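Operator note (shift B, R.M.): manual run for Cytochrome B requested after the automated queue skipped it. Running by hand, logging everything below so the morning shift can see what happened. Input copied straight from the record, untouched. If output looks odd, do not overwrite the archive copy; leave it for review.
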Amino acid sequence: MYDVILFIHSWLRWIVTFCLIIVLFRSFSGWIKSSAYLKFDKIMGGIFIGFTHLQLLIGLFLYFSLSPITNMAMNNMGVAMKNQSLRFWAVEHIVAMIIFVIFVQLGRTLSKKAQNSITKHKKCAIYNTIALLILIAGMPWPSRKEIGRPLFMEYPTQVSSN
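Run finished. Output pasted below as returned.
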């Protein structure tokens, strides 16, 4: 079960990232061009926040329930803090992703409360740009030794019983 949920979590990050890019593009375009905040902007923002929250829930389920890595780290946090890989998965990744979700939610909430289209686009652009930087910092990129994961994980052919 762990492998399947991890596969879903790994692929869902790209859906979240794709939605974020669309929202950022629309936000900056609307802000720079002083365009109206359209129904599409509202719908895309809703899709983005929905996938972001789904990704968070799956990640928390992995973190607290299924992950052998975080289970190992929780058994001895002193050792985990001295190990780059364990520290990343036990502390750095989850903290970065929770902060990412907070900024995404702030951008959505504050843009919805804004009185005019330019302010809606501006708030959405600013908060989601900060969220993007946090996302980039907290992702397990393949180039990061001992931490990295493949950009596109393959579906597990052998499903473990965990």
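Quick read of the result: The mean pLDDT is 92. Residues 2-138 form one domain.
Leaving this for review. - R.M.
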